[in-house]
C-alpha cells in the first residue's frame, strides 16, 4: 500500500462523493424547507436514469438527455408536491409515508415501462477514456462527475447566497413561520425546492447511470446512501450536504478497501454512531 | 365510557367471528390469515412507539429478525423449540429482542422526529448486515430452513391448529399491550407524545418512559419473529431488510396509528394485497401503492377511522336535515 | 326475508351443481397442473419474465398438450422473497392441487421450496436455483426434488481447468459476497489449483456493489488474470470500471458475469472476456439457432440461460408425461422417470446423474462482436470456443470423493496462496 494506493482510493472516494452530493443535496434542501424526508428521492434518481435512456434511444443524444430527463422528473416532483404533499398541510409523518406510497408506484411503473433489464447509459466516447497522471489511471468519467458536482454546488451556493430568491429560501429554512410573517410565500418556496430536489436527484440518476447503471431496485439502493449523506451533513444545509457527501464517499471507499470484512457496516454504523452522539447530525441544527 | 366499552365489544366480536370463520375458508386463506396475525404483533409493537409515544421507527424489523433467527437457529442447529420447549423459545425470542432494544434504545432514544427515524433505520440496517454477513450463524443470504413446525400434544403443522395458536398469541399480545397503553404508564407516554417538554417540567423522566416503551415494543417484535418464522418455515435477510421495517410502519399508519387493533387491519390489508391479490392480477402493486396514497391523503386516522367518519357524516346529514339552524357540528 | 335468502342459496347451489356437471365431461383426459413460481415484480422481475417466457414458448409449441394431457400452467409471483415463494407454493399445492412445482430464481428460494415439496409430497423442479447442496449433501432430505439447471460450481470446474490450460499461473478472484459467489469461486479454485494454478487473492464486494472503486486498486498486480463473478447489474459495471482503471490482463468470468441476461446491455469493453456456462445463445447448432430465432421474434430479446433452462424443463416434463400417455404417474414415479431421461435440448444433450442433477455440456465462451444467425447487426455474443462434453456436478473427482469435502464456501477451499 504505497502512496499511489491512497491517492487512487481518495480519488475514487471523492468522485463517488460527487455523485452522492447530487442526490444528497436535494434531499437535504427538501428537508430544510419542508421538514420531510422524501422517501421517493431514490425513485427520482432512477426515473432520471430511465428518462435519459428513453431520450437517448429516440434522439441518440446524451447531451440532450441530461436536461430533458432532469426537467421531466422535476415536473413530476413539482406535481407531486402541489397535488399530494401540499394538501396535507404540515404533517411530516404522513407526508413521509405518502412519499413511500409513491416510491412503490414509481417502482412498478418503471418496471412496466422500461422492463426489468439492466441498462447502462453510454456517455460520449471521449468520457469513457482514462488519463494517466503520475502513473495513476484516472477515468475521465469520474473527473466529469466531480466537475458536475462542483459546478452544481457552486451554482446553488451562488443562488442561495447572492440572490433574493436564495435569501427567501434561507429564511424559510431558518424559520418558516417567521418567513411567512414577513410576507414570504413559503408555499411557493416549498414547491420550487421540491422540484429542485427532484431535478438534482434525476441529474444524479443520469450522471450516475453511466457509473452504477439503471435497473429496478436502484431506487431503494440509493435511498439509504442519500440518507447517510444528509444525516452526516445535517439536514437543510447545502454545505453540510457537500461535506456529508465527501465524508460518506471517502468513508465508504476506504472502509471497503481497507476493511472489506465489514463493508456492510461502513455506511450504517458510522451513521448510527453519529446520530447517537449528536442526534441532529454533524452539522445539523434543530 | 360507554362508547369505549362498545368499541371494545365490537372488536372482540369481530375477532371472534374471524377466528370462527377463517378455519372454514380454504387452506391458502388460513395460511395468509395466520401470517397476517403474526405480522400484526410486530405492527402493534410499532404502534406502541408510533401511535402512543410519537416515535416513528424505521428499524422494527430488527426485532422480528432477532426472534426469527433465534428460533430458526435453535431449531435447525440444536432441535430446540420443536416440542414443549417451543414456549421457552418464544420467551427467549422476546427476551433476545428486548435485550437488543435495550441496547439500541440507549443510542436512539435521545433523537426525536425524523432523526429517530434515521437512527433506527441505521441500526436496523446494521442488523441486516449482520444477518447477511455472519454466514456461519445465519446461513447468509440462503437463510435458515425449518423442516417442520413444533409439535407438543398438538401438531402445529396442521394449518388450523397453527392458526389458533398464533391467534392466541395475537390476542394475548393485544390484551397486554392494550392494558399497557391504558395504564398510568401508557397515559404518560401519550403525554410525552403530545408535549414532551411539559411532561419534563412536571417531573417525569421522559427518557426512561420512552426507553421502557422501546424495550417493550422490541420484545413483542421478537415474539412476532418467533411466530413469523414458523409460518413459512424460513428466515432470511429479506425479513430484516429496510423494506420490512417500512412495511410495518405503513401498515400501522394504514390501519390507524394509536389504535393497536389498526395494526391487524393494516397487516391484513397489505398481506392480502401482496400475497392474495397478486395471485389474481399482475398489477397488484398499483393497488397497494394506491391504497397507501389514498388512505394517507384522505384518512389521517387510518382505516380504523372509517366507522367514525361514517357516523360523523350521518350525524352531520341528519342534523342538517332536522335542525338546520343549530350550531355547527362538532369537529 | 329469510325465505328469500333460502331461495337465493338454493339457486346458487343449483348453479354450482350445474357448473360442475357441465365441467365434468370436458375433462376427458385429466389435465396436468403445473405451478410456476417466479419473481414477476421487484428488482429481478425481468429474470422471472425470461424464465416464464421460456416455459411458455414450449407450451405454445405443443399447444399446451403433453402426451394427450391438457396442461394448465399457473404462474405465481414470488416477489423474489423466499417466504413469499413458500406461501405461493402452498397456494399452488393446497388450492390449485398442482402436481408439479417449477421455479424459483435465487438460491434462497430453492432452499425454501425444497422442504415444501417434501412436506407436501409434490414434485419440485428447480430450473434455475443453483445452490450446490440441494443435489449434493442435502439431497436425501428432498425425495421429490430434481434439478434441470445446474449447480453453481458445475461450469466452473472446467473453467478452472481451461484457465490452467491457458498457462495462467496466478489469478485474483473477485466475486459477489454471497453463497452463490462462494460456490462459483470454490469450483473454479478447486479445479484451477488441482491443475497447478494459484488463487493469490479473493476479494468479496457486497452483492449489489456497482462502484468497484474501492476494490479495483487492491487487485494484486502480479496476477496473470482476474476471475470475476458478477450478477445482474453488477456484471455491466465491473468490466467497464476495471478496464477504465487501466487494467489490461485477461478477465475470466463466472457464468452470470457474461450470460445473455446482461451481455446485450454491455459495452464493447467486455469483448474478449471469457466465461463458462451450460448454455450460450451463440451455440452453433441447428436446434439452438431455431430456438434463438423463435424466442427472439416472440419476445424481442436473445434468450438467456434462464429462458433455455425453463424451455428445456417443459420439454422434459412433456417427455415424461408422453411416456405415461398423458397420465401423471405420481410424484415418486415422476421423479424416477424424469431422472432417467435423455433429451436433446437447445443447450445440447442433457441427462441426469444419480443425484438428480443434469449431466451436460459446459461451454467456454468468449465475448465477441459479430453477426450471428443471419441477424444484420453487429452484436455481443458469447461465442463458444471450447466444449467440455457431458460434465457432471462432480467434474472428474468422482461422487464419493467430492461429497466428502464440505460445500464450497467463503473459506473453502482455503486460500493457501493468499497472504
Could you explain the architecture of this structure?
The complex is a heterotrimer of chains A (286), B (331) and C (419). With 286 residues, chain A is mainly alpha-helical. Helices cover 73% and strands 3% of the residues of chain A. Chain A has a two-stranded antiparallel sheet with strand order 1-2. In chain A, β1 and β2 form a beta hairpin. The N and C termini of chain A lie far apart (42 Å). Chain B has 14 helices and four strands. In chain B, β2 and β3 form a beta hairpin. Chain B has 331 residues and is mainly α. Chain C is of the alpha/beta class. In chain C, α2 packs parallel to α9, α3 packs parallel to α4 and α5 runs parallel beside α6. The chains are: A mainly alpha (286), B mainly alpha (331), C alpha/beta (419).
- Beta content of chain A comes to under 5%
| Widest sheet: strand ordering of chain B | 1-4
How many helices of chain B? 14
Overall helicity of chain A: over 70%
Distance between the termini of chain B: 20 Å
- Succession of helices and strands of chain A: HHHHEEHHHHHHH
Largest sheet of chain A: 2 strands, antiparallel
Low-pLDDT regions of chain B:
324-331
Shape descriptor of chain B: globular
Radius of gyration of chain A: 19 Å
Order of helices and strands of chain B: HHHHHHEEEHHHHEHHHH
Shape of chain A: globular
Keywords:
heterotrimer, B: 331 residues, mainly alpha, ABC transporter involved in vitamin B12 uptake, BtuC, globular, C: 419 residues, Rossmann fold, six-stranded mixed β-sheet
